[in-house]
Specification:
alpha/beta, 4-stranded parallel sheet
Length: about 300
């Protein structure tokens, strides 16, 4: 759909479901919080369907991402605070304006729309299956998934764990070191929130995993790790050298694979994930460089 990010897969399906439940011709305000890509996707779907959109963004979102959301015709409000703060404000805006909240994270009493978003993401994995089969490649032995609130990782778990007894790949989530809510939750064995800091992986800068995603992540992930901004930049430049224009979040998958499968202790990690010389590894690049520019270096 002309957007250099996967988020529109979920936003398009969720907005379709929302509109199908309202009378034809109804004028709706769609509200969401976003670090960039999800907000633009919701704004694009609002514009295509003749609706209005209001996107709340936290501090530190790249001006290019904010401009892209506004270019879709959406109202953009920046709040002083984190992504979690923006989510809370978006929920308040939706209540105050009798609008529809189209958020990709869930909490008690707000599960239906995030569930639709996860359903939309599932098409990505069906396309991966078709592409591997078309290339005559073996099915994946490892799938590396960048994780923000965990909805894409939830879709991965749902797709690859839906047929018990069949050979399934190992699933590895990757987050920024400054916002590793999934990793912290897995380490503690319960859903927790972590304070977040600045990161160039803006779309992954989420401190609280989705309540809807958490049970899937707890039971379905084989591993989780966190990477630095420098790791992401290096991975983005490596991908660019192969003609793949990945943004910082998109490059996180490669950064995570390198961290897991190389370096000190890699042998044990490879064995734990059942990775051999012939294993097919799938890296999910969730955004292109056009969606979130990659700096040459940290400065």
């Amino acid at each position: 759909m002309g957007l250099a990010a996967f988020k529109v897969l979920g936003a398009s399906w969720a907005v379709h479901q929302v509109l199908s439940r309202h009378p034809a011709g109804a004028e709706l305000l769609l509200v969401t919080a976003s670090d960039g890509n999800h907000g633009r996707a919701v704004a694009r779907m609002a514009r295509l369907s003749g609706q209005r959109a209001h996107v709340v963004v936290p501090s530190g979102v790249h001006p290019v991402a904010i401009a892209a959301i506004a270019a879709e015709g959406a109202r953009v409000t920046e709040v002083a605070g984190t992504y979690d703060d923006a989510v809370r404000r978006a929920a308040e805006v939706a209540r105050e304006a009798s609008a529809v909240l189209v958020q990709d994270t869930a909490w008690p009493g707000y599960e239906q729309v995030p569930g639709w978003i996860v359903e939309g993401y599932s098409t990505l994995f069906a396309e991966v299956d078709a592409q591997l089969a078309g290339a005559g490649a073996a099915g994946p032995g490892l799938v590396v998934v960048p994780a923000g609130v965990g909805s894409l990782a939830q879709a991965a778990v749902t797709h690859y764990r839906s047929h018990p007894g069949e050979s399934a790949p190992a699933l590895l989530s990757v987050e920024p070191e400054s916002a590793a809510g999934v990793l912290a939750s897995l380490a503690q064995g319960e859903l927790v929130s972590v304070p977040t800091g600045a990161t160039i992986m803006a779309g992954l800068n989420c401190g609280t995993p989705s309540m809807l995603a958490w049970p899937y992540l707890r039971e379905g992930l084989d591993g989780a790790l966190a990477v630095t901004d420098a790791d992401s930049i290096a991975a983005a430049h490596e991908l660019a050298g192969h003609g793949i224009p990945a943004g910082p979040c998109g490059a996180a998958a490669l950064a995570g694979a390198l961290a897991a499968l190389t370096g000190e202790g890699a042998g044990a990690r490879r064995a734990a994930l059942a990775i051999g010389a012939e294993t097919t590894v799938v890296l999910l690049s969730t955004e292109g460089a056009a969606a979130n520019p990659v700096p040459d270096a940290l400065g």
